[in-house]
Amino acid sequence: MPFALIPFLLLVIPILEIAVFILVGNMIGLWPTLGLVLLTAIVGTLLLKQQGLSTLARIQADIRAKRMPGRDLVHGVMIAMAGILLLTPGLVTDTIGFLLFVPKIRDGIWNFMKSRVVVVAQGAGTSGTWNSGARGPQPDPRAGGGPDVVDLSGEEFERRPDASSPWNDKRDGDDTPQGRILH
Asked: Nearest 5 degrees, angle CA 122-CA 124-CA 130?
């Protein structure tokens, strides 16, 4: 989504919510409308807890099996967005939030997104770029073999200061600049 749409949505969504509040309030009354908003917040909290915990368990199982949990990560983000939308007062945002709790709708969004998303994974024992395809994660040919990372310990690193560098403030034969600690 282009960032230019965000200010437009920040204007349109509250106006739409107010219009829907007025229409629903005229149809069923003030107190039932407020009760409906409160009920959706409570139901949304319960759904968020139940679906969020089950998605988290699937993500942890994929990580333990050394698989990329791309689908479940995206589902987790959509479930979190659904919870935020349901806790936001409004009937339009509640409707969108409840739709995001439906697994088939999340799968449809995931299927739309997965051909357009490249996941970069880096962690204990794994690093690289993965393209989420139909057969699971595949090394992304556009990545050029992964990131160029050099990880050195303190014993492997030797500092040779450049005398012509403007940042060289070597004093009294000390290799470490005054007041600075090299990591």
From this structure: 30
